[in-house]
Design goal:
CATH class of the largest domain: Alpha Beta
CATH architecture of the largest domain: 2-Layer Sandwich
CATH topology of the largest domain: Dihydrodipicolinate Reductase, domain 2
Number of helices: 15
Largest sheet: 10 strands, mixed
Radius of gyration: 24 Å
Helix content: 25-40%
Number of strands: 18
CATH superfamily of the largest domain: Dihydrodipicolinate Reductase, domain 2
Structural class: alpha/beta
Distance between the termini: 51 Å
Strand content: 25-35%
Shape: elongated
């Protein structure tokens, strides 16, 4: 019988779910896997207030995180604190003490994951990271193991449940961003400070990790071009319907023929025929496109206590079964050379330009001249009936154009005196 004694740092939603899973499944784990798991210590800065009567009575509770990391009866540390510090410091101390670590900390892994993986290898211990991307969806393990025989062309998808919930509700009800965000916060789908989600940071952290594992390159968070969903309005939903498309925040990492990586998080107008358009509410969907195997989509709950805890537990069991020597390094590669990131000139797509203007003659002519000057071809113009002529929305769709050309045109378009809001450019994808 293999035994593994767990020291837990952070007794929040995921931590509580993990303890429940370990306790309820202990006998089955012993019988079916030959592994005896137990939580022996819980460290949390509010340990006194959070102490729960349903947790096994032998578990030690403490506000001293270091004491959990250094305890001689702890074999593996689960870090669920979030943030950079003290999480990073505790993980390093655990490695120095010869203990394995499992973490769900996407921010820490995106910014310091390379050095943490190197330290784990140096100390001969394991680092489990499955829960850091897409909750209970086993996407990192799939990239590390199941796709090892293929050359991945692209990876990404819908990586933030908060944004997907907001965009789903805007589409279904025609509601405004601000009011639906408030609802999402009340339902627990959005944080009190939603900046990381709605401005694309959360998805960028996750995309950074996916890209490292897919392409074997050291991708940095700052390499990811990022736009938030905050400028979106109900009329963007209306025009999306006219185009047979749905608003979705899409994170995308694609290997271009040049070998460079295209990396972005932004709102796309996705074809209603796409599976991504049908992913609704606080769910995630991860697309993996292989050179030989073609496209695959992994769909499920990308956050929440139980789904994320199952991913944490899967890492714990793998470490127990392998004796702390997993078949592949955390990011799937022993070395991650720097990524060569594609410039804007290499992103080419059809776009939808949304304008909000004070209505007057000559608006389309002025816009057309600027687009023509930058060799940008118009495909179509859509304008629905609108009562307020002082804030009239309409859209122009473009034939495929390089982002660099479009950016130059947008710089001129923003200066037009009839604009009520800055023009918004949304790529249109199949």
């Amino acid at each position: 019988m293999k035994t593994l004694r767990i020291g837990l740092l952070g007794f929040g939603t995921v931590g509580q779910s993990l303890v429940r899973l370990v306790q309820s499944g202990r006998e089955e784990c012993r019988g079916r896997r030959g592994i005896d798991l137990s939580v022996v210590a819980i460290g949390d800065r509010f340990a006194v207030e959070k102490r729960a009567p349903w947790v096994d009575g032998e578990v030690r509770w403490t506000t001293d995180l270091t004491s959990v990391v250094r305890a001689p009866d702890v074999d593996l540390v689960v870090e669920l604190l979030g943030g950079l510090d003290p999480a990073g410091r505790m993980i390093r101390e655990a490695f120095e003490a010869g203990k394995h670590v499992v973490t769900a900390n996407k921010l820490l892994l995106a910014t310091e994951g390379g050095s943490l993986a190197a330290l784990a290898a140096e100390k001969g211990v394991a680092l489990g990271i499955e829960a850091s991307v897409a909750g209970g969806i086993p996407i990192l393990r799939a990239l590390r193991e199941s796709f090892a025989g293929d050359r991945i062309v692209a990876v990404g998808g819908i990586l933030n449940g908060t944004c997907n919930y907001i965009l789903t509700e805007m589409t279904a009800r025609g509601g405004r961003y601000a009011s639906i965000l408030t609802e999402a916060q009340k339902l627990g789908y959005a944080e009190a400070d939603p900046t990381s989600d709605v401005e694309g940071w959360d998805a960028a952290y996750k995309l950074t990790l996916l890209a490292r594992m897919a392409f074997g390159r050291h991708v940095r968070v700052e390499d990811v071009a990022r736009e938030g969903i905050t400028p979106l309005e109900p009329f963007d939903v209306v025009y999306g319907r006219l185009l047979g498309r749905t608003l979705r925040q899409i994170a995308l990492a694609r290997r271009l023929p040049s070998g460079r990586l295209l990396l972005s998080v932004r709102t796309h107008l996705v074809s209603n025929l796409s599976l991504l358009a049908r992913v609704e509410g606080p769910f995630n969907a991860v697309l993996v496109e292989g050179e030989a195997g073609g496209p695959f989509i992994f769909h499920g709950r990308g956050a929440g206590g139980d789904p994320t805890a199952t991913a944490v537990l899967a890492d714990i069991l793998e470490i127990a079964q392998s004796g702390g020597r997993p078949a592949a390094p955390p990011f799937g590669y022993r070395e991650l050379p720097p990524a060569e990131v594609a410039p804007p000139a290499e992103f080419v797509a059809p776009f939808c330009l949304r304008f909000v203007v004070r209505d007057r003659p000559g608006i389309i002519a002025a816009i057309s001249r600027i687009l023509a000057d930058h060799e940008v071809n118009i495909d179509s113009v859509f304008q629905t009936p609108w009562d307020d002529k002082n804030a009239l929305p309409f859209v122009i769709t473009l034939e495929p154009v390089a982002q660099v050309q479009l950016d130059a045109a947008l710089a001129k378009l923003r200066g037009l005196d009839f604009n009520v809001a800055p023009p918004l450019a949304l790529p249109m994808t199949p």
